[in-house]
Amino acid sequence: MQIERELYSGKAKSVYATNDPDRLVMRFRDDTSAFDGRKKEQLANKGATNNRTNAFIMQHLERAGIPTHFERLLSDSDSLVKRLEMIPVECVVRNRTAGSICRRLGVAENMELDPPTFEFFLKNDELHDPMVNEYHIRAFGWASDDEIAIMKRLAFEVNDVLKQLFLDAGIVLVDYKLEFGRFQGRIVLGDEFTADGCRLWDVDTGRKLDKDRFRQDLGGVVEAYQEVANRLGVTSG
Fold first, then answer.
1. pLDDT in tens, 216-228
2. Which secondary-structure segment (H or E) carries 85?
3. 143 partner at 20 to 30 Å CA-CA among 50, 135, 171, 209?
């Protein structure tokens, strides 16, 4: 697989075209940011840890019947993925209250949500990723009714699979965001699933093992990410 020009450089990943028009290389960098890029830092080994963890989780989801864009690991930092036409919304599932839902609704952190909640957000850093609903998505043509239904269904299927995976590792899956795209007429899970895009708490102590360690200046960010990987059984090879 030959890597060609860079197509996109985000806050923590870069995406490259390849000599296969249907495949891309996704490169996980050591860059870390929060608050729409206002806080930035480089954390050694973060990219490699996230790349391996994402590969492990995507493969686990594939085995559970959830279609993803992941193809295979190429190196410590690179993965080969399908080239998707991305849908510009984020799907957020919450099992417990934390982060923005606490601020918006004035509720305490760590309330168990039964059933889990689902929210759509427009993927737009300049607008601070505003919340949207299905009417906005249809009216602006971001996705069809069928695609909306599939994204919601898959998001909850991911929850069923990963809640148990993390619980078996002694970790509470608090919440997470997903992004989806189209590949050959099919809705497929894209982007990544790492501690950068979800909240993970130790089941016994409540210790945070995710990006909130960076947001809240708790320290030990990469160490926490590596602990998650080790508990899941992610290997470096």
1. 999 999 999 999 9
2. strand 85-96
3. 50
- Where does residue 37 fall: left (phi above 0), alpha (psi -120 to 50 degrees), or beta otherwise? left
For residue 236, pLDDT over 90 is answered with no
Q: Which of 201, 200, 179, 182 has the alpha carbon at shortest distance from 190?
A: 179
In a domain, 230, yes or no: no
Cα dihedral 237→63→19→30 (10° resolution) = -50
Question: CA-to-CA distance for 171 and 91, rounded, in angstroms?
Answer: 21
Lookup: tokens for 129: 């990723």
Q: Which of 40, 63, 82 is the last residue of a domain?
A: 82
Q: Is 203 left (phi over 0), alpha (psi -120 to 50) or beta?
A: alpha
- Containing structural domain, residue 136: 85-220
Considering the domain architecture, whether residues 68 and 101 belong to the same structural domain is answered as no
